[in-house]
Specification:
Radius of gyration of chain A: 20 Å
Number of domains of chain A: 1
Strand order of the largest sheet of chain B: 1-2
Number of helices of chain A: 5
Strand content of chain B: under 5%
Number of helices of chain B: 13
Shape of chain A: flat
Radius of gyration of chain B: 19 Å
Distance between the termini of chain B: 32 Å
Order of helices and strands of chain B: EEHHHHHHHHHHHHH
Structural class of chain B: mainly alpha
Number of strands of chain A: 0
Oligomer: heterodimer
Largest sheet of chain A: none
Distance between the termini of chain A: 32 Å
Order of helices and strands of chain A: HHHHH
Low-confidence stretches of chain B: 1-7
Mean pLDDT of chain B: 85
Number of strands of chain B: 2
C-alpha cells in the first residue's frame, strides 16, 4: 500500500468510471429507438441473458479448476431443487469452502 | 396478478409510484445475494489497498460489480492520466454488456418519456433486469418496477460494500470461504430459472465456447463481449429452422 494521495484525484477517477458505466447503461436503450426491431433482433435479445452469463462464467471456471466446478454444480443443483437464490449461493460457497478444506 | 395478462398479451407499459415500491419488494429475494457480492467487493477492495471511502464511492457511483472488481484489481496510486484512461476503457469494456441489456428493455419502455426511463437505466443491474424481465414475462406492465428494484439493490450494495470492507480488513484468506467464487456462483444461479430446454440453450454454449477461446488468446475482458455477441447472433439464427 502506497502513501495516500488526495481524495480529489481518486474521486475524479471514480467519477470517470461512473460516467463510462452510465453511458453503457443508457446507450443500448437509446440506440434501439433508431434501429428497427425485427424478429431476428428480438431473438438475439432473448438469447442475451444466458449468453452473457455463459461468457462470464465459463472462463472463470476454466481458470479456477475443479473447486469452481464443484461449487457451481452444488449451487445449480440447489437452485433446481429449491428455487431459492440465497440458499443456492450459500450452497455453492459452502461446497467451495469444503472442497478447499479437503485439499481439492 | 390475474389481470396482468389479457388474451396472452402484455398490457400497455406505464409508470407509477406504487410500482417503485413493488419493485423494491420484488428485489427482496435478490438482496442477500447482492449483499454477499457487495461484501465480497468490499473485502476485495480492502485487500487491494483501496480506502474505505474509495470503495464506498465506487459502489455508490458505479454500482456495477464485475467492473468494480476489475477496477479495484488495477487501481494504483499515484494515478496518472494514462492510468485513468486505461481504467475507463476497461470499465467500459466490462460494462459493455449493459448496452445489450439496455437494448432489451426498449420493447417494453420505448414509448415512455425519458424522465421515466433513464433514471431506471442509471441503476440497472443484472439481477434488477432479470427481476424486471420475469415481471414483464408474467404480463406486468409498470416500468417503475425497474427503478424500485434498482434503488433497493443500490442501497444494499453500498451498505454491504462498507460492511465487507470492514470485515475484509480482518480476513486473511477470503478464498478459504469461497468468496472468490461468489460472482460465477451467483450468475449460474440466475441462469437456472431461464432454462427452457436444450435448444434455446445452444446460444449459451456458443457464448461460452467463444468466450473460452477468446480468453485464451486475448488479454483483458474482451472475451465477455466476444462470447456474448457470438451467443446473441447464434440466438438470432437458431429458430430459423423451426
Amino acid at each position: 500500500m502506497s502513501a495516500p494521495e488526495p481524495l480529489s484525484v481518486s474521486l475524479l477517477a471514480i467519477v470517470a468510471l461512473a460516467i463510462a458505466t452510465v453511458l453503457m447503461r443508457s446507450v443500448g436503450f437509446w440506440l434501439m429507438a433508431h434501429v428497427p426491431l425485427t424478429a431476428r433482433v428480438r431473438r438475439m435479445l432473448e438469447a442475451l441473458p444466458g449468453a452473457i452469463v455463459a461468457a462470464i462464467v465459463l472462463p472463470i471456471i476454466a481458470k479456477s479448476g475443479p473447486v469452481a466446478v464443484i461449487a457451481i454444480i452444488a449451487a445449480a443443483a440447489a437452485m433446481i431443487l429449491r428455487r431459492n437464490a440465497f440458499l443456492a449461493v450459500a450452497a455453492g460457497m459452502v461446497a467451495a469452502a469444503l472442497a478447499r478444506y479437503a485439499g481439492i | 396478478m390475474d389481470s396482468k395478462k389479457i388474451n396472452g398479451q402484455a398490457r400497455a407499459p406505464y409508470w407509477s409510484g406504487a410500482g417503485v415500491v413493488e419493485g423494491a419488494w420484488l428485489a427482496l429475494p435478490a438482496m442477500p445475494v447482492m449483499a454477499m457480492f457487495g461484501a465480497a467487493f468490499g473485502t476485495f477492495a480492502a485487500q487491494k489497498g483501496l480506502s474505505l471511502i474509495e470503495a464506498a464511492l465506487m459502489s455508490a457511483l458505479m454500482f456495477a460489480g464485475a467492473s468494480q472488481f476489475v477496477a479495484a484489481e488495477i487501481w494504483s496510486d499515484p494515478k496518472t492520466v494514462a492510468g485513468v484512461i486505461a481504467l475507463v476503457v476497461i470499465t467500459a469494456t466490462v460494462n459493455m454488456r449493459f448496452v445489450l441489456i439496455g437494448a432489451s428493455l426498449h420493447p417494453w419502455l420505448g414509448g415512455l418519456p425519458a424522465r421515466q426511463t433513464y433514471p431506471a437505466l442509471a441503476v440497472l443491474t443484472e439481477p434488477g433486469w432479470l427481476i424486471a424481465m420475469r415481471y414483464r414475462d408474467e404480463g406486468g406492465a409498470d416500468s417503475a418496477i425497474l427503478l424500485g428494484s434498482g434503488i433497493a439493490l443500490w442501497l444494499v450494495w453500498i451498505a454491504a460494500t462498507v460492511a465487507g470492507y470492514l470485515a475484509g480488513a480482518l480476513m486473511t484468506d477470503p478464498a478459504r470461504y469461497g468468496i472468490d467464487l461468489v460472482m460465477p456462483i451467483f450468475f449460474v444461479v440466475l441462469l437456472v430459472p431461464l432454462w427452457r430446454g436444450p435448444r434455446p440453450a445452444i446460444p449459451w454454449a456458443v457464448a461460452g465456447a467463444i468466450a473460452l477461446i477468446v480468453a485464451e488468446f486475448v488479454s483483458g475482458s474482451w472475451y465477455i463481449i466476444a462470447g456474448t455477441i457470438a451467443g446473441s447472433i447464434a440466438g438470432g439464427f437458431i429458430d430459423e429452422r423451426t
